[in-house]
């Protein structure tokens, strides 16, 4: 059995703070949202 995660639709970038915690500083859309939806429907057809 093989399992794959869908492509990312957003990528977040983090900084380490002075207290050694992570703080998100920005999130960028990858432009792959339509690919993810299309890939889901194609996979669903194969598995059904």
Describe this structure in words.
With 48 residues, this protein is α+β, with helices and mostly antiparallel strands. The protein has one helix at residues 33-47; strands at residues 10-16, 22-29. It has a two-stranded antiparallel sheet.
| Discrete helix count | 1
Task: State Rg.
Answer: 16 Å
Main β sheet profile: 2 strands, antiparallel
Report mean pLDDT, rounded to a whole number: 76
Report the end-to-end length measured between terminal Cα atoms: 15 Å
Shape: elongated
Number of strands: 2
Structural classification: alpha+beta
SSE string, helices as H and strands as E: EEH
Give the strand line-up of the largest sheet.
Answer: 1-2
Query: Uncertain runs with pLDDT below 50, 5 residues or more?
Result: none
Helix residue percentage: 25-40%
Relative strand content: 25-35%
Offer a quick outline of the entry.
31% of the residues lie in helices and 31% in strands. The chain contains 1 helix and 2 strands; from the N terminus they run ββα.
Comma- or semicolon-separated keywords:
2 strands, 48 residues, 1 helix, two-stranded antiparallel ribbon, alpha+beta
How do the helices and strands line up, and which of them pair or pack?
Elements (H helix, E strand, L loop, with lengths): L9 E7 L5 E8 L3 H15 L1
Antiparallel strand pairs: 1-2
